[in-house]
Design brief:
Radius of gyration of chain A: 32 Å
Largest interface: A-B, 22 and 24 residues
Largest sheet of chain B: none
Structural class of chain A: alpha+beta
Number of domains of chain A: 4
CATH architecture of the largest domain in chain A: 2-Layer Sandwich
Oligomer: heterodimer
Order of helices and strands of chain B: HHHHHHHHHHHHHHHHHH
Largest sheet of chain A: 6 strands, mixed
Distance between the termini of chain B: 18 Å
Number of strands of chain A: 20
Strand content of chain B: under 5%
Number of helices of chain B: 18
Shape of chain B: globular
Structural class of chain B: mainly alpha
Strand content of chain A: 15-25%
Low-confidence stretches of chain A: 489-495
CATH class of the largest domain in chain A: Alpha Beta
Helix content of chain A: 25-40%
Number of helices of chain A: 15
Chain lengths: ~550, ~325
């Protein structure tokens, strides 16, 4: 039995559970709420809020998700009380002296985690806003200030935007959550970078992954389980081309859920894994749902609901429901729904999943043959303006107008309109990277593209300063260098008089002649300064050097 | 032997070998879908359906019939097969280096129309071997890969383990011209031939793969040497004995193709007597494949036939 009460104005869900006291303080804020130019702010704040608590003997942790951030703990009553109070107090009084240190810890954490494929799917589906943010590194870190963190905490980490859950008989006496007043925040808007679905894109990763957005339902969660069984059977047991093949179901917070299915592949069998994957999706889409799969998925879910601690185990999910305004079902309702799901219901989800699907295929493969459209990797339009060709002569060029920037490429334009720019990273060496709402990226390297200063000024004037993130200086080795093509061997040339040879000859002649003229003049003068004599010496040294260079080159080219 | 009638020119018309197909042709051109369905309903097995689908998809303008037919497994299959035939018409039969970019694009457009129909069809009916067989052709044309082709064949073979048309298509895929290797091509041909029941058409893969290897050789001298190899001759002859020359060899659709391939390859590898028996079996009948590999198919047919029958070329 789950009871709802309140602690210091924070709605609180309580259900009994054996073992130590467990509690979670959940806020309705996550990565999907961050602008890309502040990406990482919630995670940074979460780290700072935990810092004062230090190393605890009991279990205490926190996690920043897409739409929620949760502080979790388990231990003795007093430990739980201390932990939660410390977190709330820290949120109101952040240890800002830790700011830079925690930033660098986050950078390390990110590097260790690597780019998760499932996050990349969000980037392709949603672009560089909302649920797409998780696909990017925490780009906002370099520019995040104490003020940013303070106002982020005041907006999102309030008692009206939080829910507490406690797995225990009741609320421990003395528990307090000193949080400021605020308001319940709405879910982030759903953005889109996919003009049409089902769509596909290719990645070097080598796996096949499918994600789909379907209406949230018990049938949809069973579809995930059925899909997993089908993939495992077809790709691993029958074809033997995959080791790992599975699927999972994730509510998105609103009326929809994301289904994610993935299969790995032996490197040489990627084509067959893709083909087998497409056929499994098709099998379910046309309605060949194995009743035995539905039954066993249902049984598994029902069995999980027989756990004596089932109510307590459901608390974190119900806390999220409460925060997002999604109605929670009682465990009995869930059982009844599970029993009522038919193969036809699962089929309806399969049809819906296919219509919204996004498929990741291994590099070098496509899925257009299977009815998936390519997800855009180029823009539909280019801004006007003059195209300045790149120095590498690789067919790329840059054009800038007051509206935006386009990099032309042989396979089409990449355009970011300033009004739809999520972030512009700038480096001290002059490089700029603009990421559009649709996740199209334009990167300008001054060493590779010569853009006139007045056009660079247009970029800086056009992009909202709020989305500009100044980056630390790069290692010179990371700055791409323009290496001109190797000069042709001079001997094969038609003339010994290459440009440099001519220049050396001219400088040598001019220096020697001027030096001589000056010398004659000085000798004829009664009084002469030291600097004038010096000039003669310098001219003659320069002339001699150029003469030597000229002779060297002239001989070599002979 | 003396009773053999004077040989005439080869007849490549499938209607000459299987006159009953004329009724199907007429039904298709009259867009008489009921008759088309009835015709297919009378076919004995998947191999026969595949052969007749091949015929029906080559009929010019037949898409007008299939596109308008009510939705069914058969109409889907014929529609997709027709799109595949149109794809190959755009491509032309030439080797890849002689096909223009426009042709490839046009071909892929048709194949991309065919494939989703077939994906759904095989999803609904995983035992629809003729549909899987067409999917081997789409895999070839769309260059979906060696292992994907093999996967498709394995799905088909669960239900039709000795489906010659599909085997022959996968053999093409396994040849180096389509991204395979000779090892894989020979391996597959031998695997199918070894597992085939007595008198089946599957051992025809043996002369086919030797023919592919022979054609691929660079010089006339290499080709001549290849045909003289005793192990080549022995392997082809052995395959013939288990197929066209076996008493159980039937006269189902596809027998003309098998006999044609054996007649040619037995003939050029020096098994004259066995080749002559194939030509006797054929009368004047001929299958386009493999003779279309030669510039003048009819002339090649007559030349080989004359050489094995010991008669001057007529």
């Amino acid at each position: 039995m789950i009871k709802q009460t309140e602690v210091d104005g924070v709605p609180t869900l309580v259900a009994p559970m054996s073992g130590p006291l467990r509690a979670g303080l959940v806020f309705r804020v996550g990565v999907a709420d961050e602008p890309l130019s502040r990406a990482g702010i919630t995670h940074l704040l979460e780290h700072l809020a935990l810092f004062r608590h230090g190393l605890a003997d009991h279990e205490a942790n926190a996690a920043t998700g897409l739409i929620t951030t949760q502080f979790f703990t388990q231990g003795a009553e007093s430990e739980v009380i201390t932990y939660l109070r410390s977190v709330c107090q820290s949120l109101g009084d952040l240890p800002l002296d830790r700011l830079e240190t925690e930033k660098s810890i986050l950078r390390t954490e990110r590097a260790g985690r690597g780019d998760r494929l499932v996050d990349a799917m969000g980037l392709w589906r949603y672009g560089s806003r909302g649920h797409g943010i998780a696909g990017y590194p925490e780009l906002g870190l370099p520019r995040l200030t104490a003020e940013d963190l303070g106002s982020w905490a005041a907006t999102w980490f309030t008692r009206d935007n939080a829910v507490l859950w406690i797995a225990s008989e009741g609320v421990p006496a003395g528990l307090s959550l000193p949080l400021p007043q605020g308001e319940r925040r709405p879910l982030p808007p759903i953005t889109s970078a996919l003009p049409a679905t089902p769509a596909y894109f290719a990645s070097e990763d080598g796996q096949v992954m499918f994600d789909a957005v379907v209406r949230r339902s018990t049938a949809a969660s069973l579809y995930g389980a059925v899909l997993e069984r089908e993939l495992f059977r077809a790709l691993r047991q029958e074809d033997g081309n995959s080791y790992r093949a599975g699927a999972s179901y994730h509510p998105r917070g609103d009326q929809f859920a994301t289904l994610v299915a993935v299969a790995d592949s032996l490197p040489e069998k990627q084509d067959a894994v893709l083909g087998g994957f497409v056929d499994v999706l098709a099998k379910l889409k046309v309605g060949r749902i194995e009743q035995s799969d539905v039954d066993s998925a249902r049984d598994k879910a029902l069995t999980a609901l027989t756990d004596p601690d089932v109510d307590a185990m459901r608390l974190p999910g119900m806390a999220v429901n409460l925060l997002t305004g999604y109605p929670s079902q009682s465990t009995e309702q869930l059982r009844a729904e599970l029993r009522a799901v038919s193969a036809q219901d699962v089929h309806a989800v399969a049809v819906e999943a296919m219509s919204t699907g996004l498929l990741l295929v291994p590099a070098g493969h496509a899925a257009d043959w299977a009815g998936f459209v390519p997800a855009p990797t180029r823009s539909d339009t280019a801004v006007g303006g003059t195209v300045h060709p790149g120095l590498r002569e690789d067919g790329t060029g840059i054009a800038v107008t007051a509206e935006g920037i386009t990099m032309t490429t042989p396979s089409g334009p990449l355009t970011v309109l300033f009004a739809a720019c999520s972030v512009m990273l700038t480096w001290p060496d002059g490089a700029r990277r603009l990421i559009g709402h649709d996740a199209i990226t334009v990167h300008v390297e001054p060493t590779l593209h010569t853009v006139p200063p007045q056009e660079l000024a247009l970029i800086d004037a056009g992009v909202d300063p709020e989305v500009v993130v100044p980056m630390p200086a790069r290692d010179p080795e990371d700055i791409p260098a323009f290496v001109p093509r190797a000069p042709r061997p001079a001997s094969s040339g038609t003339s010994r008089w290459s440009a440099m040879t001519v220049i050396y000859a001219l400088i040598a002649t001019a220096s020697l002649v001027f030096g001589l003229v000056l010398l004659v003049k000085l000798i004829g003068q009664a009084a002469s300064s030291v600097s004038e004599w010096r000039a003669v010496v310098v001219l003659w040294i320069a002339g001699a050097y150029c003469a030597v260079q000229f002779v060297k080159r002239y001989r070599r080219s002979g | 032997m003396s009773s053999r009638p004077a040989p005439g020119p080869p007849n490549f018309d499938r209607l000459a070998a299987f006159p009953e197909l004329a009724a199907l042709r007429d039904a298709v051109s009259a867009r008489d879908w009921t008759s088309v369905e009835l015709f297919f309903a009378g076919l004995p097995d998947a191999a026969a359906v595949s052969y007749v689908v091949g015929y029906a998809s080559d009929l010019p303008g037949s898409e007008q019939c299939y596109d308008r037919a009510p939705d069914s497994s058969l109409s889907s299959l014929l529609r997709a097969a027709r799109y595949v035939a149109l794809a190959w018409e755009v491509r032309s039969g030439a080797r890849a280096e002689y096909v223009s970019e426009d042709q490839f694009r046009g071909m892929h457009d048709w194949l991309r129309r065919a494939e989703p129909i077939l994906i759904d069809l095989t999803a609904r009916e995983p035992d629809n071997a003729p549909a899987w067989s067409v999917r081997l052709t789409t895999a070839l044309g769309l260059q979906l890969g060696q292992h994907e082709a093999r996967r498709r064949y394995d799905r088909l073979a669960r239900h039709a383990p000795h489906h010659f048309q599909a085997q022959s298509r996968l053999l093409q895929q396994f040849c180096p011209k389509w991204g395979g290797t000779w090892d894989r091509a020979f391996g597959f041909a031998r695997e199918c031939a070894a597992n085939a029941p007595a008198g089946s058409t599957s051992p025809t893969l043996i002369p086919e793969v030797h023919l592919e290897q022979y054609i691929d050789l660079d010089t006339a001298r290499e080709r001549a040497d290849y045909l003289r190899r005793p192990e080549v001759r022995a392997e082809v002859l052995d395959a013939a004995r288990r197929s066209v020359l076996h008493p159980d060899f039937g006269r189902g659709y596809g027998w003309v193709g098998a006999a044609s391939t054996f007649a040619l390859v037995l003939g050029i590898t020096g098994s004259e007597e066995a080749a002559a028996r194939c030509f006797d079996m054929l009368g004047d009948l001929a299958n386009e494949h493999p003779w279309h590999y030669f510039e003048d198919a009819a002339a090649k047919y007559r030349k080989v036939r004359a050489s094995v029958q010991g008669r001057p070329q007529s």
